[in-house]
Amino acid sequence: MALALPEVVEELLSEMAAAVRDGARIPDEHLSSLKFVFGSSAIQALDLVDRDSVTLISSPSGRRVYQVLGSSGKTYTCLASCHYCSCPAFAFSVLRKSDSLLAFRETWVTVQTWSSSKTTPHTTKMAQKWRQETPRYKSLKDNFISV
Amino acid sequence: MAEALRRVLNEGRAAGPGGDGAAGPPLLLLGAPRSAQTSLLFAAALEAAGEGRGPVLFLTRRPLQSLPLNTPAARNPWRLQKVRFQYPSSVPELLQLLASAHEAPGPAPSLLLLDGLEEYLAEDSEVQDVAYLAALLLDTAAHFSHRLGANGSCGLVVALETQKGADGDVPHLTTLRRYFPAQCWLQPDALGLGQHHCLRASLESGKLSPRMEWSVTFLPNGEMKVIPWPTQASKPGPEKKCSSAESQSLTLECDNLSGSVSIG
């Protein structure tokens, strides 16, 4: 019933989830692929992972919803079954401008849905890799990472 | 789409992959005023109720004063008992109903219907509010599907009466299409004969699925004939003989089209 992500993304997330379940580190290639698909939202999403900002709320009936703590201290709600987040970024970037496939909190929910746990500080890892390889590192640093 | 509605339009045959209880993608039923959306929703409700997989939840803002259809299925008390009507009178009430649907007792519905979405959208015109309502509808149906488990999934059909804005666009349609990949448009058929009220139903299930079309004709005696839209440039003729395997007749009180409904 949920809106389906492109198949390539589902395959990527499946591989990441398998790596996490096996207790292995998520390969750098997967993280880079995540950034390639989701753009800047990916690093913000993984930052949420590192900061333990996402809570899965389950009812005894099995219905679930994600609650995400934003940097401002405000909590937002992401639905697990389809693409929706109550944050202003979702309304602006996804609904109005259609710039992003998913807003970053949704990206996080997507990652979390397919992962059972986190291992390394993903944000730092990704930042190190991109510093080495990405000509656009400066813009990343200015906009998303304080290093 | 909800396969129940597809079967109503497809003359009772299980169409495509829906025969295994799969409900298909959520469907937006679109049409101008007086395009029989309520009647089609009710027909889908009866179809799903007859499957025995679970009850049907029919949401509409205003209580129905009488049944939208007068058919053997509509007069079947066993089917009617399986259609649960609820009348949330405002957006907050509708959101509350959907958000707490997992707490409702009883078996999970196999079909979730919402009639008159435009009346709720008139309350909240912000794009995020529209998205939230659409997403919550999907989430509710997804939860019901989870509870149905091996019994199949819960279909979702939402009827939206379309009124074009000053810019010629239907308000909020872009947002709604994000959540409803399948749309069925009901359009008056300019080739309708005489006093017959004819509609053209065009179903688009997604980019990879071909468009399916039907001619829905309401006859003066209240009967509704549904036949595949002719591929030639010829009028659909009500005198055309249709076998029971090819057409499904629904007795419809024509007063429904003029706003008043009565049960025959």
Describe the structure.
The complex is a heterodimer of chains A (147) and B (264). Helices cover 51% and strands 11% of the residues of chain A. Chain A contains 7 helices and 3 strands. Chain A has a 3-stranded antiparallel beta sheet with strand order 1-2-3, covered by helices on one side. In chain A, helix 1 runs antiparallel to helix 2 (28-38), helix 3 (41-50) crosses helix 5 (104-114) and helix 3 (41-50) packs antiparallel against helix 6 (122-133). Chain B has 264 residues and is an alpha/beta fold. In chain B, 26% of the residues lie in helices and 22% in strands. In chain B, helix 1 (3-9) packs across helix 2 (37-49) and helix 4 runs parallel beside helix 6. Classes of the chains: A mainly alpha (147), B alpha/beta (264). At the A-B interface, helix 4 of A face helix 6 and helix 7 of B.
Tell the overall outline of chain A: globular
The top-level CATH class of the domain at 3-185 in chain B is Alpha Beta
Structural class of chain B: alpha/beta
Name the beta content range of chain A. 5-15%
SS element count, helices of chain A: 7
Oligomer: heterodimer
Number of strands of chain B: 10
Q: In total, how many beta strands of chain A?
A: 3
**What is the residue-averaged pLDDT of chain A?**
68
Question: What low-confidence regions of chain A span 5 or more consecutive residues with pLDDT below 50?
Answer: 114-147
Name the helicity range of chain B.
Answer: 25-40%
Protein name (chain B): ATPase SWSAP1
GO molecular function, one term (chain B): single-stranded DNA binding
Organism (chain A): Mesocricetus auratus (Golden hamster)
Protein name (chain A): Zinc finger SWIM domain-containing protein 7 isoform X2
